[in-house]
Amino acid sequence: MQPLMPEPLIPVEKTLALIKPDVTGKEEEIEDIILRSGFLIVQKRKLRLSPEQCSNFYADQYGKMFFPNLTAYMSSGPLIAMVLAKHNAISYWKELLGPSNSIKARETHPDSLRAIYGTDDLRNALHGSHNLSSAEREIRFMFPEAIIEPIPTRQAAVDYLNLYVNPTLLAGLTALCKEKPADPM
């Protein structure tokens, strides 16, 4: 009798989703659509970015005509950042979003989120990562404490341990040494 082999792991991709300032009031509706579309919301937070933070987030758009308006719009109010997970999450999320110009989206993809909630090319209601590398960068930007799989190795792992794990261990072990409990477990 052969031993049972474990089921192969299904790779799950993560992407960043932003509900932009002018549609945060529709958060529950949008989340419902996201969940019904098979996504898992791994992390979520509400935040407000400064114009400087927006400039850093959209650094790849720097120099384009719409850049000042984009940073002003994105810093005009709170937004909702979410990490979505699903097999091929990036492509499925982009498909659900539709074209970046909401006016064109209403013509070509009337059921897309941008067609439903967006108003124009700039105020298109939602953001999605373009590819895997931008998803990783954007998730780290919005959720700096997040561990993005694959788990970091080599210098990235050492940096993570030094920054987050070692200080906690040091504080805990120091407290343990000071207390000297009879049963440290």
TrEMBL record:
- Superkingdom of this entry's organism? Eukaryota
- SUPFAM superfamilies recorded for this chain? Nucleoside diphosphate kinase, NDK
GO biological process terms, alphabetically, are:
cilium movement; CTP biosynthetic process; GTP biosynthetic process; negative regulation of oxidative stress-induced intrinsic apoptotic signaling pathway; spermatid differentiation; UTP biosynthetic process
Q: Which InterPro entries match?
A: Dpy-30_motif, NDK-like_dom, NDK-like_dom_sf, NDK_H5, Nucleoside_diP_kinase
This protein's GO CC annotations: cilium
Q: Which UniProt keywords apply?
A: Kinase, Transferase
List the residue ranges forming a coiled coil, or say none. none
Instruction: Name the family the entry cites.
Output: Belongs to the NDK family.
Tell me the protein's name: NDK5 kinase
Tell me what organism the protein belongs to: Crypturellus soui
- Please name the taxonomic classification of the source: Eukaryota, Metazoa, Chordata, Craniata, Vertebrata
